[in-house]
């Protein structure tokens, strides 16, 4: 037989598109040519495949070999097709039985010795293979990730020679036992934060409704410490959310980590990050920080130090929960349903409004500093509060009362979030205009207060809706059926950042 077809999958963003690896042996000058829009890493596979086949004791055909990666208009990159190309050559030359490769999708990169190396994006491929009714062969190093797709039939191999031997003997077996996932270790606990009762309250509200949060305060007031503990307050991830997050981490830097299964992401990019680093991109689009924080927390420390153009790219995903990365060769859609938590100083020196009286910044300097953050972006942040410096007596008190643990706060968050899911099927922060009208109707006194606040604070329509969402979350925390005056009053306070009065 001089023609063989092997099934595989390409990685296009989060999509795992099917690819047919067609190998044809013909008379002519010996050589291997790969067609079908391969990028550099795919074109280089010819040398890896040749060496791997030879070092496993098989013969590389001394014929003209054409390898077509179909469809031809889909860009292919990476070393994920090495194993499929090698098996296609061996099947076309009669060195392995081709019938054993039917209904089998194959992923894997080859070393020169024939060892099968892990690749990225295996979880997405496993889910798609299961939907197509095919089995999936992956490197042994990818089994923990592929096994998360419980409906998929996963086969594993670590070496090309051993795989060919198993194909001859017909003893390729589907792996049925999922590997044990290592313990991720202890998570940061909100009980470790001394004082800051109002900030902890805001953190709990943010966790209940999935709201964005901005904390302003002097250096050392605990803003970063508070932000790092928000994931420990959030409800446990559902199976669907955990699969989405794992599929994203699989194609991100560092790949899939089994220790992070079911743990909400906490991403904290440096303020020198570019717009592409935040939203994703590249000639072969890869997810950015907002996608890597999907179903988790994106923390932007020193918010005014970020380039203003970089911050503006957050406006669309904050509203839509997704981002489309368009390049000349392809377009990729990435999910970006993250919780934004930001921290900033009140002025360039950081001590405006602090009881120490250290600040010497002029009003113009303060305005220029805060002007680095656009009004439209601030308008999209639900909760805004001033975080004062913790007094020395609070930090050094030996008999300080025990603070609430993350587990205790999380229990209240889970109960309040469940009320939202039972009522509307989504967190309050994700409500649309029609859903707001249906589920967030304040009592008459609360509506009057909200209208007064809207006039006095010059709130936009977007800010008005966000106040309603926060008030609805406060009502859910109190297990109240309707939004009361106290809920609106507290929600409005989180729209009026204290401009220097601690």
Automatic annotation (TrEMBL):
Keyword S-adenosyl-L-methionine attached: no
Keywords: ATP-binding, Hydrolase, Nucleotide-binding, Protease
Gene Ontology MF, one: ATP binding
NCBIfam families in alphabetical order: PRK09862.1, YifB family Mg chelatase-like AAA ATPase
MCM C-terminal AAA(+) ATPase domain mapped to chain residues: 288-387
One BP term from GO: proteolysis
Cited Gene3D superfamilies: 3.30.230.10, P-loop containing nucleotide triphosphate hydrolases (3.40.50.300)
Lineage summary: Bacteria, Pseudomonadati, Pseudomonadota, Gammaproteobacteria, Nevskiales
Pfam families xrefs: ChlI, Mg_chelatase, Mg_chelatase_C
Similarity comment: Belongs to the Mg-chelatase subunits D/I family. ComM subfamily.
UniProt name for this protein: ATP-dependent protease
InterPro entries: AAA+_ATPase, CHLI-like, MCM_dom, Mg_chelat-rel, Mg_chelat-rel_C, Mg_chelatse_chII-like_cat_dom, P-loop_NTPase, Ribosomal_Su5_D2-typ_SF
SUPFAM superfamilies per the UniProt record, alphabetical: P-loop containing nucleoside triphosphate hydrolases (SSF52540), Ribosomal protein S5 domain 2-like (SSF54211)
Keyword Repressor: no
């Amino acid at each position: 037989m001089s023609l063989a077809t092997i099934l595989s999958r390409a990685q296009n963003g989060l999509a795992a598109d099917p690819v047919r690896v067609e190998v044809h042996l013909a008379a002519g000058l010996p050589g291997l040519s790969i067609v079908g829009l391969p990028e550099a890493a795919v074109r280089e596979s010819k040398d890896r495949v040749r060496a791997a086949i030879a070092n496993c004791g098989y013969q590389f055909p001394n014929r003209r070999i054409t390898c077509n990666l179909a469809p031809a208009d889909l860009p292919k990159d990476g070393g994920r097709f090495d194993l499929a190309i090698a098996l296609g050559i061996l099947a076309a030359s009669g060195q392995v039985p081709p019938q054993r490769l039917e209904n089998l999708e194959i992923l894997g990169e080859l070393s020169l010795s024939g060892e099968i190396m892990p690749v990225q994006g295996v979880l997405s491929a496993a889910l798609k293979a299961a939907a197509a009714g095919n089995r999936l062969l992956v490197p042994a190093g990818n089994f923990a990730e592929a096994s998360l797709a419980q409906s998929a039939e996963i086969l594993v191999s670590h070496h090309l020679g051993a795989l060919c031997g198993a194909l001859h003997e017909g003893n390729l077996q589907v792996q049925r036992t999922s590997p044990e996932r290592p313990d991720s270790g202890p998570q940061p606990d909100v009980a470790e934060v001394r004082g800051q009762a109002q900030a902890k309250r805001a953190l709990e509200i943010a966790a209940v409704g999935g709201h964005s949060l901005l904390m302003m305060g002097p250096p050392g007031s605990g803003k970063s410490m508070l932000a790092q503990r928000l994931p420990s307050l959030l409800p446990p991830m559902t199976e669907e959310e955990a699969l989405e997050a794992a599929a994203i981490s699989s194609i991100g830097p560092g790949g899939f980590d089994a220790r992070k299964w079911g743990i909400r992401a906490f991403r904290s990019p440096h303020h020198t990050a570019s717009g592409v680093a935040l939203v994703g991109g590249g000639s072969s689009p890869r997810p950015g920080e907002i996608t890597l924080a999907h179903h988790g927390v994106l923390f932007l420390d020193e918010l005014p130090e970020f380039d203003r153009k970089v911050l503006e790219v957050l406006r669309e995903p904050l509203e839509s929960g997704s981002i489309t990365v368009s390049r000349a060769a392809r377009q990729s859609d990435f999910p970006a349903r993250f919780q934004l938590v930001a921290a900033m100083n009140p002025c360039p020196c950081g001590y405006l409004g602090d009881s120490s009286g250290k600040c010497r910044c002029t009003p113009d300097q303060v305005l220029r500093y805060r002007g680095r953050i656009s009004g439209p972006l601030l308008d999209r942040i639900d909760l805004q509060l001033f975080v004062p410096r913790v007094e020395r007596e609070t930090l050094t008190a030996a008999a300080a009362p025990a603070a609430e643990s993350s587990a205790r706060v999380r229990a209240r968050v889970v109960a309040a979030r469940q009320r939202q899911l039972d009522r509307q099927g989504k967190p309050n922060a994700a409500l649309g205009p029609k859903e707001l009208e249906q589920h967030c109707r304040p009592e008459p006194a609360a509506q009057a207060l909200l209208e007064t606040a809207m006039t006095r604070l010059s709130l936009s329509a977007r800010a008005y809706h966000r106040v309603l969402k926060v008030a609805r979350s406060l009502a859910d925390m109190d297990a109240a059926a309707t939004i009361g005056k106290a809920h609106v009053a507290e929600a409005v306070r989180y729209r009026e950042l204290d401009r220097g009065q601690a």
